[in-house]
Structure formats: C-alpha cells, structure tokens
C-alpha cells in the first residue's frame, strides 16, 4: 500500500472517530465475573455459598442511563448457571434476560458474555442467579442506574449512598433445599434474616452528623416480606424501582419479595449509634436482624433495644396505597413522568391471574390459573425464533381463573400483541401474601383492596398518579390491579417472587409479539447465543 493510500485510510479513520464522538455514543462498561462456590457463614453456620469474584453479595453494578454493559460470566460451578437482572427492562432484548425461558444455561467450566443496555431507565435494582434454586446460596448483588448529568433529579445529591440487600436465609445448602422441593414438600420457616450477607450487627454504616444519605433497600429473600426501619430516624421515600416517587416520610417500610425502595435519611439525631432493623412480616414467628448506623462523631452505643415493627395488614395496605408518582419530576428522559397519562389510555385486554397451591401427582405444586409451569427441554425464546415445533403452545394458560380447585402441569405461554395496553388483576384467595414480578416491563398499580375483584372495583382505581414499578404484592384474600403497556417485544417471565413457589410452577411466560421482523422492535439473536436442547444445530 502506497503512502497516499495509507494517508487516505488514516483520514477516513479519523473522520469515523470524529463522527462517533459527535454522535455521543453511549458509554461502555466492562465486567468480568468468576462464579465459584465458597464457604460462607451468614448466620454463623458454615455452608456452601455462591460467590462472584470471591464476594457475597456480588459486586455492585454502577451505571448511567443508556450505558452499555458488557458482563462476561465464567461459570466455575459444577452445574449450569444463569444470572438475571431484576427490574432491568432489556429493551428490545429479551435475549439477555437471563432466565431459562430465554437463555441456555452457562455450562460448568464455560463462559457467556451478557451485552445489556440500560435503555431509558434510572433507579435501584439487583441481579440474582435464576436457575436451580441457586438464589438460596447467594450470587446476588446490587444494580444502580444513575440519571444522565443533563437530566434534573428531584432531590439534592446525597452525601453518601448505601446498598442494603436484605432477606430471609436458610442454613441448609441450596442443594438440600432443592431436594426438599423436588420431593414434593414445601420449605420450613427460614432460620433467620441477613443484611448484606451477614446476620445481626455484622454491618456498620457510617454517617456524618447533619448530612443526608441515600439507602437503596432490596428484599432479596426467598419466602418472606420484611419491614425496614432505622431507630430514631425518618425516611424520605424518593424512588421505587426506577420511578421518582412523591416524597412522603415514613418511620418504616414494608418491602415485599423482589421489591426495591430508595430513601433519604438525614443524620439529625444526637451523635451515637442506632439500630438499622429488618423484621419479617405476616409470619407467626417474627425474625429480626440488625445493623448499626454509626455517627462518625458518636459519643455512645445503641440506645436500648431495636424498635418494633408494625403488625397489621391494614397498615401495610394503606402504606401501599400511599405510594405515588412524582408527576413533575423527570425520569430517564427530560419530560416529566406525569406526561404519560396512563389512566387515559384505552385498555385492550383484561387478564386475571389467580394463584393456587394444588397437589399434583402426589406432590406439592404452585400454579397460576390452575397451570403449574414446567420447563421445556429448550428455552422458549430459542424455540420461537427457530420455529421449533412441540416445545410450547401459545394460549396454554387461560386469561382468567378456571374455578377448579385442582391444577395441571404445562409449559405455559400466554400470547400478547406488541403495543397492546392491558389490565392485569392478580387475585389471591389464599391466606398468605403473594409477590409478583413481570420481566421486561413496568406497570402502574391502579388498585389494591381486599375481597373479590369485580368490574365495579375499577371505580376506585387511581388513574392519575399511582406508582409505576415491576414487582407488586397481593395481600391475603385480596387483589391488586395493574395497567401495563406491552411496549417491549420478547419472551418475558411472569413469576412469583416467593422462590419456592416459583420453583414449583408459579410462573409463566408472556410472548409479546410484533409481526414486523424489524430491529426497530427487537434486536436479532446475539452472535454468541448459547444453543441447547432442540436448538442445537440451528
């Protein structure tokens, strides 16, 4: 190649780089994770945990709206593994969702690189292992998406930022718990609660007097709701799973399975130590775990015993109704959150989902509309993409409760149209609280009430300023109603966040379909996609 050709190529390369910079391509962040077993002692008992880069909980992901995240996961376990991203929407990209309905597991000794974009999102979330009851062994961590610098945030920058991953814990290894469930039994009551991988008083969060600190609290447990409070301090709620909330003040917060809240706390009390408390909710036996809020100029220890939490269901339901969207605050984009008038959009379909606990073939199972989900031999997304027959059938779960007391096993997939606007009603006829998550979407919680839902229940919907989120609770013998835009093409998991219930069938997949085979609606299958089952060879 001559000098002038090389010079021309250099000039062209420079032009391309200048154009890329001018376009301001979104930033890339790179992570390399090694997933291993390791000894952990969350409640003082040695057990086998799942570590990421030797850590439990795993590394915190810190990102900014629209960032591209390249996460290379090496599976050094002795069984297949997947990571999912609770609340991260994976816009046009269910290929990266990390559940068995969308992804082949990472085989032992192999790796897979997730390529995520946190498109048009802000807020506080967490990631977790989605297969084989691995979540009972750890493997989870925090996930933050900050607003872009050009987008106003409706509160001043805090002086510190803490992530709290709390929840119930079992002293038995996940393989033992899994064997109990596979044998047709249910899990016993948890052995305790942990905060950031440890039992009581093992964590200290240091604050400076007079300053404001942000706490992002997630319930990463398996079976129980928790209440969170800080002795002697008020909490100003500012964000709920990516939505800037109306800034109400609370003494304590009920946080149900899979949910995340973000609060501001001012260190405005006398300089000493205070208890941070989590306790179980809606359980006959109340478990507690504590950490320490330590003032940097502390003059003394913790004053007295930890404060007690609330006990009534009505108290919790009223708190749930108090959650409101901050209509004037910007979300991930500069336009106000309230500019999306969710209550003025015509509903195109109503889906009623009722949980149940049938015994099928002599074993305890859990179901939705009488269908208890069983995994197929091939991820549903791959079967759909390659048009592999016999893996699943659309319409294999009905839109309404069947009214029967029994249940049956099925790889349940519900068909839905892209850009439809649906009303989803979760109905809970049982005596225990339910918590539900929908991947790939956010929804507006328009109604929460006791008793049986009916058409007349719509008269009391909040159609103006309810909270938008991705995980919602349904109280015992109660219902919760949502409005949800189906604005994300893909195969999406709808699941109970009670992990024993999810494992034993209380989940299904929502196939949001667009007839236009276009990158505008959905990204193509990744070039590094793992193939398994009947997808091998395609």
Describe the fold and architecture.
With 538 residues, the protein is mainly beta. The protein folds into 3 domains: 119 residues, Immunoglobulin-like, CATH 2.60.40.420; 163 residues, Immunoglobulin-like, CATH 2.60.40.420; 172 residues, Immunoglobulin-like, CATH 2.60.40.420. It contains 5 helices and 36 strands. Strands 9, 10, 12, 14, 15, 16 and 18 form a 7-stranded mixed beta sheet that branches. β14 and β15 form a beta hairpin.
Features:
single chain, 538 residues, mainly beta, Immunoglobulin-like, 3 domains, 7-stranded mixed beta sheet, 6-stranded mixed beta sheet, 5 helices, 9% helix, globular, disordered N terminus
Task: Give a brief description.
With 538 residues, the protein is mostly beta strands.
């Amino acid at each position: 190649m001559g000098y002038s050709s090389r010079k021309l190529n250099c000039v062209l390369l420079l032009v391309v780089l200048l154009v890329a910079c001018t376009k301001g391509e979104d930033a890339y962040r790179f992570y390399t994770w090694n997933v291993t077993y390791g000894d952990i002692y969350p409640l003082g008992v040695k057990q086998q945990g799942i570590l990421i880069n030797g850590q439990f909980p795993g590394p915190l992901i810190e990102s900014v709206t629209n960032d591209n995240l390249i996460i290379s996961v090496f599976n050094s376990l002795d069984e297949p593994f997947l990571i999912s991203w609770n609340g991260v929407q994976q816009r046009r990209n269910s290929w990266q969702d990390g559940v068995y309905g969308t992804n082949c597991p990472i085989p032992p000794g192999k790796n897979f690189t997730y390529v995520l974009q946190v498109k048009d999102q802000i807020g506080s979330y967490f990631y977790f292992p989605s297969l084989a009851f691995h979540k009972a062994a750890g493997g989870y961590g925090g996930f933050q998406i900050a607003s872009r610098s050009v987008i106003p945030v409706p509160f001043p920058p805090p002086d510190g930022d803490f992530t709290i991953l709390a929840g119930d814990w079992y002293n038995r290894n996940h393989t033992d718990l899994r064997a109990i469930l596979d044998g047709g039994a249910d899990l016993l009551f948890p052995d305790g609660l942990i905060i950031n991988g440890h039992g009581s008083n093992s964590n200290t969060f240091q604050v400076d007097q007079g300053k404001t600190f942000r706490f992002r609290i997630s319930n990463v447990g398996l079976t129980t709701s928790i209440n969170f409070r800080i002795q002697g301090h008020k909490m100003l709620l500012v964000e709920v799973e990516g939505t800037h909330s109306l800034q109400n003040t609370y003494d304590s917060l009920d946080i149900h399975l899979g949910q995340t809240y973000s609060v501001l706390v001012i260190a405005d009390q006398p300089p000493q130590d205070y208890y941070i408390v989590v306790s179980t909710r809606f359980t006959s036996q109340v478990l507690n775990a504590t950490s320490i809020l330590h003032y940097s100029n502390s003059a003394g220890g913790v004053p007295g015993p930890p404060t007690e939490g609330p006990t009534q269901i009505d108290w919790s339901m009223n708190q749930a109704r108090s959650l409101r969207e901050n209509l004037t605050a910007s979300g991930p984009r500069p336009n106000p959150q309230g500019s999306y008038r969710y209550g003025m959009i015509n509903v195109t379909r109503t889906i009623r989902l009722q949980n149940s606990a049938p015994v099928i073939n002599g074993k305890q199972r859990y179901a939705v509309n009488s269908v208890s989900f069983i995994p197929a031999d091939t991820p549903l997304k791959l079967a759909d993409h390659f048009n592999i027959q016999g893996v699943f059938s659309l319409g294999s779960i009905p839109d309404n409760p069947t009214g029967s007391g029994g249940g049956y096993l099925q790889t349940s997939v519900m068909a839905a149209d892209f850009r439809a606007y649906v009303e989803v009603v979760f109905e809970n006829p049982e005596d225990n609280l339910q918590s539900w998550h929908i991947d790939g979407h956010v929804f507006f919680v328009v109604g929460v009430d006791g008793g049986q839902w009916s058409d007349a229940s719509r008269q009391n919907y909040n159609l103006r300023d309810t909270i938008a989120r991705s995980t919602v609770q349904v109280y015992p013998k109660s219902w919760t109603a949502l409005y949800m835009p189906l604005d994300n093409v893909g195969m999406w998991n709808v699941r109970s966040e009670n992990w024993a219930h999810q494992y034993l069938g209380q989940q299904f997949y929502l196939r949001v379909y667009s007839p236009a085979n276009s990158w505008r609606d959905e990204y193509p299958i990744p070039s590094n996609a793992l193939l398994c089952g009947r997808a091998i060879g395609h």
